[in-house]
Specification:
alpha+beta, two-stranded antiparallel sheet, 3 helices, 10 strands, about 15% helix, DNA_primase/pol_bifunc_N, DNA primase/polymerase bifunctional N-terminal domain-containing protein
């Protein structure tokens, strides 16, 4: 049996980074709505860790995957859930990393209002959701990610 947390009522925005290696989709689907310069080699972007790192680099920010100031949870499949507190009481939409228009990045889902996330320490048939490091509470959502989320709410599915 597993435990899930409803993100909206808990005032959470969780970045769900997938680690399912796959050939990357078309360049325009890696970071929907954001142009990736032609001189950037996208052939090695095979997971959400890669696409999120590129988004962070384009914004001159550290990747949320490396954010040791907030709760981070390794998933049984090798992915990562990065937990943040919602910065205000607006509704923050969920998004899927497979969306062609309203995604933060390919293979990166966002769990927020209307979504849920598996609680740290929960064991399912797939394995255990293991907290990383010593931080056990969500930090505030970084301003640059809040800005990305703000613009995502205007992109039509």
């Amino acid at each position: 049996m597993g435990v899930g947390v409803a993100c909206g009522p808990a005032n959470l925005v969780v970045i769900d980074i997938d680690a399912h290696p796959a050939p990357p989709p078309a360049r325009n689907r890696l970071l929907p709505g954001i142009d990736i310069a032609e001189d950037i080699d996208v052939s090695a972007m095979t997971t959400g860790f890669h696409t999120l790192a590129v988004l962070a680099a384009l914004r001159d920010q550290p990747s949320p995957a490396d954010d040791t100031t907030t709760l981070r949870v390794r998933t049984p499949s090798g992915g990562l859930h990065v937990w943040y507190r919602r910065p205000d009481f607006r509704n923050w939409q969920c998004s899927s990393g497979s969306s062609t228009t309203r995604a933060l990045a390919w293979q990166v889902d966002v769990r927020a209002d209307g979504g849920y996330i598996i609680a740290p320490g929960t064991t399912t048939d797939a394995g255990t959701y293991t907290p990383l490091g010593t931080v056990r509470t969500p930090a505030p959502l970084p301003a640059w990610l809040a800005q990305e989320r703000f613009w995502l709410s205007f992109r039509a599915e």
